[in-house]
Amino acid sequence: MSPNIDGVCPCMNPNALPRRIIIGGREVGIAGLDEIIKAVRNLNLSDEEQIKEELLERVKKRNWVPDEAKKKYAEALLSEYHKSAQSGKRAR
Fold this sequence. Notes:
With 92 residues, this protein is mainly alpha-helical. The protein is built from three helices and two strands, in the order E-E-H-H-H. 20% of the residues are buried.
């Protein structure tokens, strides 16, 4: 596995481990999802389309996203983004 942006192998970061979410009715493992959500939350974006775009672009850097499923991924990622805020997992 290659190092991420800060030079640390993602396998050494527990926040970068895959988390399973439902996308288009199927369970999919997304590597680094919690870390990605935290980073996007720290951007303080208010527009939901911008949030979806940012989440999807960051997820695509670590995970394969089929072209035909990008919209489903974006919607599912936005849902997880909102769930994380409601469940108290909000980035500090």
